[in-house]
Automatic annotation (TrEMBL):
<dbReference type="Pfam" id="PF04978">
    <property type="entry name" value="MST"/>
</dbReference>
<dbReference type="InterPro" id="IPR007061">
    <property type="entry name" value="MST-like"/>
</dbReference>
<protein>
    <submittedName>
        <fullName>DinB family protein</fullName>
    </submittedName>
</protein>
<dbReference type="InterPro" id="IPR034660">
    <property type="entry name" value="DinB/YfiT-like"/>
</dbReference>
Length: 170
């Protein structure tokens, strides 16, 4: 299966453009993971790093959950993978961790994020707060941050994928 990736509109309103860029980067990460086995998706970038493609997907599920559920909507179901003892739990994979599970969890968090965001205007402030500040965030800020977060991690994904099988691309 090839993930379809749509170029963001070049002349859309601000919200459509922000949502388009966010979806573009979500789709880019999915494409970086396509065609690999679970073992390849669990392959670390370089010792001693635990950074893997599957770990990045699990991390982005946590990030989607944190910003759109906890911060934006003040709906805190708790973390998916990390704990107080293991703050980077999403990157600590075992042989039991599968792409099917990681991908399904990530996609579910994206759908919940979309539903929450649909109830806010760009200038509306979040109902919840992050662990970094007691100040609320506008939906515009959250969208911009999420685009930055995906873009940064897609750069990591490029390098990991190239290490695994030599595949490069946009």
């Amino acid at each position: 299966m090839t993930t379809q990736r749509s170029e963001p509109a070049q002349n859309a309103d601000e919200r459509t453009m922000l949502e388009g860029w966010l979806d573009y980067h979500r789709q880019t990460l999915a494409r970086k993971c396509e065609g690999l086995t679970d073992a390849q998706l669990r392959t670390a970038s370089v010792e001693p790093s635990a950074l893997t493609l599957m770990g990045l997907v699990r991390h982005m599920a946590e990030v989607e959950r944190g910003w759109f559920r906890k911060v934006l909507a003040d709906d805190d179901p708790g973390p998916l993978y990390h704990t107080e003892e293991d703050r980077d739990g999403e990157f600590h994979l075992t042989e039991a961790d599968t792409w099917a599970q990681a991908h399904a969890t990530w996609q579910a968090e994206i759908e919940i994020a979309r539903r929450h965001a649909a109830g806010f205007a760009l200038d509306d402030l979040s109902k919840g707060r992050s662990r970094f500040t007691e100040e609320p965030f506008s939906l515009r800020w959250i969208y911009t941050h999420m685009i930055e977060e995906y873009a940064r991690h897609n750069g990591h994904a490029d390098l990991i994928r190239e290490r695994i099988d030599g595949a490069t691309g946009d």
